[in-house]
């Protein structure tokens, strides 16, 4: 896909989804220091992972490109056994939750994007991380956008971002704005849903979630958090920060130059470009054919003689 087609116009800013093979020295060094990545280890680990996949009757290499497998190796710091376990869990998880996974196609999910619940901010932060904003408070009307649509929208954005080697290396940070959260939103969540979502974040998706920032939370948000809290492992718990309306607190983690002014940053950026993001995601049709094709292979059981 041409570079200009991967650009989301956001007022005077542009978000560009990358697929550059040459990631630059800064990212290469970060991969070496944080992930143990070297060209030699990368090749060795990729070959070992492929051998492990080939040794399974219920798996196939179809739709498992090298770039996709590298995402699992990077999140597991190039330990092939751990990467295989995460990959296998992802396929089991996908089979277990068809409601959220089956037939992912941006063309069918326009509604969640035009309601401007999601914004991928145009610049990486000072750590090279992607910044993903979810406005799940007053901007989200469950009568117009279902929780299922939100989850499927998140999955599609993550799939596009995971094409980026720099995102595989540096990971991402999530900002969740729950300003004006009403009781009707709280009732959307159950312990079963909380477990599903946190299993995906913590044990399935091949992405480094480096921090989660909750902003503008009203007192009622405690009810939501208490639903999710039993399923949050210590590693993720230590990466969740509650800022309320304290913008200085938020920019102590994310430099102001990478944030919109409404979050204490320097960018004059309205978060109203969901349809532009949707239009770019629709260009990834071949990617989502691959996503939908990744699944466990049915193994026929031998009948007794």
Automatic annotation (TrEMBL):
Record-given protein name: SEC14
Alphabetical list of CDD domains matching this protein: SEC14 (cd00170)
One matching Pfam family: CRAL_TRIO
InterPro entries: CRAL-TRIO_dom, CRAL-TRIO_dom_sf, CRAL/TRIO_N_dom, CRAL/TRIO_N_dom_sf
Coiled coil: none
CRAL-TRIO domain sequence ranges: 109-271
PROSITE patterns: CRAL_TRIO (PS50191)
